[in-house]
Backbone:
């Protein structure tokens, strides 16, 4: 039997770097051992002429069809992903961020597991500076039965690595705006609703980090998002009262500590040092 087709969903916005978008696209299409059947690029609002030219060039040279969805105004990631889901041709959808790199066996490994009946699968990743010769560390997610209990305190999936069924995402209510927590909120609802999920522990994606990566994980805006998602978890019974209180204190406190402390805590909990 031929491999089942799947769609690649790639949102971009005005802050993305054309060279990074080009690398993300090519790593997820041209360089894959199992290519998507199509790419849906969602342009979330106006972009620079250079980025628009890069998108046009990628579509023209792509070995698979490219469907462009252009939003006139910047609507935010949750809305962009929802518009992309409206446009994809296939139920199995691979997520890709515009500044990361898919490793060549990514879809061969993940989509094969989807073919076994999963609703969502993520993978490990490596954080890198500049290019993949400068790996900082790896982030290895939980697998199997460990995912649900892990999810009550940490996001169980590295969000740019996921492949999912559109039908399962829509059944759980889709991507809903919630600060920068829309992914975590969706995973919780899917797990709580009985979706079949797993991770490939092997790193299958390169996640680009810069000097401001850990600073962006803190501050009052992130604290507000943290409180909102914890309230949302409690509202559906995903967490207990004790778990809710713990998460507000520990995860909320994490958003307010100095950046150097946040970086060390994050790396201790989520990553293994590479160099």
Residues:
């Amino acid at each position: 039997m031929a491999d089942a087709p799947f769609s690649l969903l790639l949102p971009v916005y005005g802050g993305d770097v054309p060279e990074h978008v080009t690398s993300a696209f090519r790593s997820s299409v041209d360089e894959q051992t199992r290519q998507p059947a199509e790419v849906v690029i969602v342009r979330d609002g106006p972009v620079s002429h250079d980025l628009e030219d890069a998108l046009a060039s990628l579509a023209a040279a792509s070995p698979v069809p490219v469907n462009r969805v252009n939003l006139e105004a910047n609507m935010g990631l949750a809305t962009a992903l929802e518009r992309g889901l409206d446009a994809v041709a296939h139920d199995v959808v691979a997520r890709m961020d515009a500044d990361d790199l898919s490793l060549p066996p990514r879809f061969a490994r993940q989509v094969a597991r989807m073919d076994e009946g999963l609703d969502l699968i993520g993978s490990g990743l490596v954080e890198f500076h500049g290019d993949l010769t400068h790996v900082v560390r790896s982030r290895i997610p939980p697998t199997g039965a460990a995912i649900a209990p892990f999810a009550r305190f940490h996001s169980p999936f590295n969000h740019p690595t996921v492949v999912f069924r559109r039908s399962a995402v829509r059944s759980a209510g889709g991507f809903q705006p919630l600060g920068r927590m829309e992914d975590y909120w969706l995973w919780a609802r899917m797990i709580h609703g009985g979706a079949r999920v797993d991770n490939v522990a092997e790193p299958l994606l390169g996640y680009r980090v810069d000097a401001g990566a850990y600073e962006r994980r803190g501050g009052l805006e992130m604290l507000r998002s943290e409180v909102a998602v914890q309230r949302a978890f409690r509202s559906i019974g995903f967490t207990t009262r004790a778990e809710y209180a713990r998460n507000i204190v520990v995860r909320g406190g994490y958003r307010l500590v100095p950046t150097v402390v946040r970086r060390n805590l994050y790396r201790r909990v989520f990553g293994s040092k590479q160099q």
About this structure: Strands lie at 7-13, 38-44, 66-71, 92-95, 101-102, 120-128, 135-139, 163-165, 197-208, 271-273. Residues 270-275 have pLDDT under 50 and may be disordered. DSSP finds ten helices and ten strands in the chain. The first helix runs from residue 18 to 28.
